[in-house]
Amino acid sequence: MGRFHRHDEGAAAHSHDYHQHDHDHGDHSGYRSAVQRIDVLESIFAENDMHAAGNREALDRNGIRALNLMSSPGAGKTTVLAATLDALAGEVAVGVIEGDIATDLDAAKLAGRGAQISLLNTGDGFGGECHLDAPMVARALQGLDLPGLHLVVIENVGNLVCPAEFDVGEHAKAMVYSVTEGEDKPLKYPVMFRAVELVLVNKIDLLPYLGVDLGSFIANIREVNPSVTVLPVCASTGEGMDAWIDWLRHFVGKRE
Questions:
Q1: Distance from the CA of 118 to the CA of which of 33, 65, 112, 191 falls in 20 to 30 A?
Q2: Which one, of 142, 105, 144, lies nearest residue 121 by Cα?
Q3: Does the keyword Nucleotide-binding belong to this entry (predicted)?
Q4: CB-hemisphere CA count at 13 Å for 213?
């Protein structure tokens, strides 16, 4: 199921596996190639959405708020999360579902920061999927002691497209967007920017070296999603991170 994705309007779906070839055994001079698009019914997503509702019910039953944190690879999502765990340590009990195709490298970076970590490699029995779906998250939730948590952060697989299309049981979606990715990405890849409530524009310390304008980044984000909250930050230096931590406190309901 993880290979199927909603179209932009969510009315249908398509599969990544649409390239095929036919070998004509009557003609050994070569191969004939064809491209086939497979349309599938919305019921493909019904199972995912059923699991998402179950995940959300389990979280609600334990008074937990869940955030689906997404980004493209290298945007700084894990660095943001490490700084976040340090800031909330002793104040907010956090569980992290660490999603990656392979390795425990990111999970290791988050260890020892006061959070429960449940590692989820999509290469382990999931076919190396480029995103998390609700059944995967349901499995990962079993690795957390839910009654002891206030917040679960689902660190999704690094991908600027697919993760935004799947409800995994979260209460909100947010994303980390690095200035090194270029100011045009919200216009070229609008699905994720439309899906989120908050965008962290990370690595702003590099702006002087990139020859781009932060205002253009933000304007392009707002063109796609006028109501989104945009917070410029630098996770490695801490610049702007207080506003993000305050947003999280309000999201969880633990206000100072």
A1: 191
A2: 105
A3: yes
A4: 4
Range with lowest mean pLDDT among 1-5, 50-54, 95-99, 192-196: 1-5
Question: Across the chain, what does the average pLDDT equal?
Answer: 85
Residue in the block written with tokens 């019910």? 57
What is the residue whose two structure tokens read 């979260």?
170
**What value does the mean pLDDT take over residues 149-176?**
95
Q: What are phi and psi of 20, to 5 degrees?
A: -145, 165
Domain spans in the chain, listed from the N-terminal domain onward: 4-35, 46-252
With a CB cutoff of 8 Å and minimum separation 6, the contacts of 162 are: 5, 130, 131
> Which of 2-6, 27-31, 43-47, 77-81 has the highest average model confidence (pLDDT)?
77-81
